[in-house]
Design brief:
The structure holds two protein chains of two kinds. Chain A is mainly alpha-helical. Chain A has a domain of 273 residues. Helices cover 69% and strands 4% of the residues of chain A. In chain A, strand 2 and strand 3 form a beta hairpin. Chain A is elongated, with a radius of gyration of 25 Å. In chain A, 40% of the residues are buried. By secondary structure, chain B is mainly alpha-helical. Chain B has one domain. The N terminus of chain B is likely disordered. Classes of the chains: A mainly alpha, B mainly alpha. The interface between A and B is large, with 48 and 34 residues.
Chain lengths: 411, 188
């Protein structure tokens, strides 16, 4: 049997008939579209200024003091939102190229092995015409969906799925259904393997270290050195003890403010990615298959919180997904639906932390900070109301648009 | 692609499948390809042990959960001991493997019972004592190698019994595999 047959015209997913209708909008695409239409026009001058500062085209006065030139690197953090948008656009435009690159880097190929034929038959019973490629020697990977065109995606099957297929067929089927759901929702266009957007999001810790921790620390060391040089010099009022009351807190507040700023910037695309994953879990768990999904999520060797933070932040924690799978499909679909709007609350929280840290670094008093934060909340609400209205409209009309959306993506 | 690049000897392919059926039945479908890649060495072999923090898909912990590549590694690492044992002709001694497996099974339950059984084995068939010790060294070497792969103590004991049994059940395949691995690059 040829597993590389091109996708034939496919009807709606066969086994979704009678299932609770999946009405979770593809929030990743909403994030991209709304950012391009609503956010970009307002933010463009700020980003331009940050870019000029980074490149040294403008001489920012804040970089005049000794050792503070390195802080220019911090401008990269201000440029994270446009970088994310560029990465997202590149993911979509480069979808056909990504397919070829993924197939080559994961050494995926049509395979005539009987077990792959069984898996292919199952995948095609769920998504008729689905192209399946395999590399059974990748034993650390089970399966994933990847685009090889704007409206075409393939299922990659690797050794771990074959192992699961023999050990626990239902769990393996849940994995395949999850991956196929990403194709039906269009998630594979923006996210997934070799997606520049996902790659950038997963590397948030590198951004944090390279453009926040290192520049701020270097600048702080220079400032501290200057400070201690001046202690005791004629005409100065510096005391060494001020290191603990002024300089050290200053470093901590600066680090916290910049970290919170970065987290605020990546919150919404990550919330959208989490929504996509939980929506795909919901699809995999429909028709009473929650237990199978929960088993699929049961990793015998968990790689831990640090691994998740550094490489898997675009996926919700496995414990959360397992809990949702065990709770049933209704909590799952609700979680997938609201996790993106909840992202705005999380983003607001990060922005408030950022502002509070900046105020604290300026030695503002607590009542002043509280008052300023109230104003910040009002400003945030005012600047986002159009975005929230758009999200509400999309959430309400999405059930009606789902069949057309699926048709566009899978025909 | 991988499955076509590797020239797989039928003997090793059949040996790998039988061994996987005995050692890790879930991986029997993968065994011929895994063995072929292992024998090929280099990049093919390295791919078997690859564990990336940024694996695609939503279900992978970024670790290799299959044991068969580590089984092959353990066999290859114990190759000299196994070859010496096979060359001694002891593998043909009737009941040898069963006795050793019995003995090690008793050892798991308590060293005293194992010691008693060991004495009995040596007294009953003293000419087998040398062969028994050689086989025991193979067990220990395989268990150590499996331990290096992070397999827990209880699991690796069980695996090592099954591996040794599998190796001795198909002497021709075992010899072929060890010869092939000895000649291949990138030994892990």
């Amino acid at each position: 049997m040829s597993s590389s047959t091109r996708s034939a015209p496919a009807p709606a997913v066969n086994d979704s008939r009678g299932a609770p209708r999946l009405a979770v909008p593809p929030w990743t695409l909403f994030w991209l579209a709304s950012s391009l239409v609503i956010t970009v026009p307002g933010q463009l001058p700020t980003w331009k200024e940050s870019l000029y500062d980074l490149l040294g085209i403008t001489a920012a006065s804040s970089y005049a003091a000794s050792g503070t030139g390195v802080l220019r690197l911090g401008e990269v953090v201000d440029l994270v939102p446009p970088l994310l948008l560029i990465a997202a656009i590149a993911a979509i435009i480069g979808a056909p190229l990504r397919g070829r690159f993924v197939a080559r880097s994961y050494r995926l190929a049509p395979t005539a092995k009987p077990v792959i034929a069984e898996i292919t038959d199952f995948a095609r019973s769920v998504a008729p015409g689905m192209e399946v490629r395999a590399n059974v020697l990748r034993l650390d990977v089970s399966a994933f969906i990847y685009p090889h065109g704007f409206r075409r995606a393939s299922l990659a099957v690797c050794g771990r799925l074959v192992q699961m297929w023999r050990r626990d067929r239902e769990a393996a089927e849940a994995v395949i259904r999850h991956e196929l759901s990403h194709r039906d929702r269009g998630d594979a266009l923006l996210l997934g393997t070799v997606s520049p957007l996902e790659g950038l999001l997963r590397r948030w810790m590198w951004i944090l270290i390279a453009f926040i921790v290192i520049p701020i620390s270097v600048s702080w060391v220079a400032e501290t050195t200057d400070f201690f040089r001046q202690v005791g010099m004629p005409g100065t009022t510096h005391k060494a003890s001020q290191f603990l009351t002024l300089l050290l807190p200053g470093l901590l507040w600066a680090l916290l403010a910049s970290t919170a700023q970065l987290m605020a910037m990546i919150t919404m695309p990550i919330a959208a990615s989490w929504s996509a994953e939980i929506a795909a879990d919901h699809h995999a768990a429909a028709h009473g298959r929650s237990a199978a999904l929960a088993r699929a999520l049961q990793a015998p060797r968990s790689s831990g919180f640090r691994h998740w933070m550094s490489g898997r932040i675009t996926h919700p924690p496995t414990a959360l997904r397992r809990a949702l799978a065990q709770a049933g499909t209704v909590p799952q679909v609700l979680a997938a639906l609201v996790i993106y709007p909840v992202g705005w609350l999380v983003q607001l929280l990060w922005l408030l932390i950022m502002a509070a840290s900046a105020y604290a670094g300026e030695h503002e008093k607590i009542p002043t900070i509280i008052s300023a934060e109230r104003a910040n909340i009002a400003t945030y609400a005012h600047s986002n109301w159009s975005l929230w209205t758009a999200a509400l409209v999309v959430a309400l009309v999405w059930p009606a648009l789902t069949p057309a959306w699926r048709f566009i993506l899978t025909r | 692609m991988t499955q076509q690049v590797v020239g797989m000897d039928d003997v090793i392919e059949a040996w790998a499948t039988r061994l996987a059926e005995a050692v890790a039945p879930d991986e029997a479908d993968l065994a011929p390809d895994i063995a072929a890649a292992y024998v090929a060495g280099g990049r093919e072999r390295a791919e078997l042990f690859r564990a990336s923090a940024a694996t695609p898909g939503g279900f992978d912990p970024g670790a290799v959960l299959a044991v068969f590549p580590f089984v092959l590694s353990a066999i290859a690492a114990s190759g000299a001991l196994i070859q010496a044992f096979l060359a001694s002709g002891a593998a043909d001694i009737p009941g040898m493997v069963k006795d050793v497996v019995d003995l090690r099974d008793r050892y798991r339950r308590g060293p005293e019972r194992a010691a008693a059984k060991s004495t009995t084995l040596a007294e009953t068939v003293p000419e087998n004592q040398h062969a028994y010790q050689a086989l025991n060294r193979i067990f220990i070497a395989i268990e150590e190698e499996l331990g290096k792969a992070g397999i827990d103590a209880q699991h690796r004991q069980l695996l090592s019994y099954r591996i040794v049994r599998g190796l001795l059940d198909d002497l021709g395949g075992t010899r072929e595999f060890l010869d092939a691995v000895g000649a291949s690059p990138g030994r892990k």
